[in-house]
Amino acid sequence: MTRSIHPTLLALKSGLIVSCQAYPGEPMRNPETMAELAESAVIGGAVGIRAQGPGDIALIHERVRVPQIGLWKVGASGVFITPTFEHARRVAEAGAEIVAIDGTRRPRPDGLTLRETINRLHGETGVLVMADAGSPADGLAAADDGADCVGTTLSGYTGERTATDGPDLDMLAQLAGALDVPVIAEGRIHTLQHARDCVSAGAFALVVGTAITHSASITRWFDGAIRGATAS
Hints:
Layout lengths: L6 H4 L5 E5 L10 H13 L4 E5 L1 H10 L4 E4 L13 H10 L3 E5 L11 H11 L3 E5 L3 H9 L4 E3 L17 H10 L4 E4 L5 H9 L4 E4 L1 H4 L1 H17 L1
Parallel strand pairs: 1-2, 1-8, 2-3, 3-4, 4-5, 5-6, 6-7, 7-8
Function: Converts N-acetylmannosamine-6-phosphate (ManNAc-6-P) to N-acetylglucosamine-6-phosphate (GlcNAc-6-P).
Protein name: Putative N-acetylmannosamine-6-phosphate 2-epimerase
Family: Belongs to the NanE family.
């Protein structure tokens, strides 16, 4: 039986979700700056925001009226995207309508299975759950475990798939063709053509972060291009 899609997710269909995040130690890493980025993204047409950390999520929830995918990064390796149920609960309490969690088949730090985590979030908070997957097998398992949507977020970062130059279109197409829950393209979408390719591969919606909101990376891209052209 085909699963119905929640109205909050339907509001994201065929749209752009902008990820407003900064790395630790960067000058832009504060809730006010991230909220301003989110407001600017909505002015530009974003149908949703993805943000990390309870402080950023709470302020963005106050400032914008589009759905927010919230997460909490703990560390930078292994299961680090909203790694435990308690982290996920705090993200939901901060105001995220959708909580993004590690959606791989790896053991979770709190000992809960992915299914148990999703069931508790649904039952205790009512929040929707996005499973950040690292492979097609992850995505299929996460949907079976009850995830409301699946993202290609971790492709190339778990050791199961080689990082592609641009979005993992093969993984995206496999999941979009197999699942009855929304498949959201995320990861290394750096150009307008990348975005078009994701739509053609069946993406329900797209998350773009670095290419829009991470000025240090964008500066490095342009600087590298100029230096390369000068050296040739």
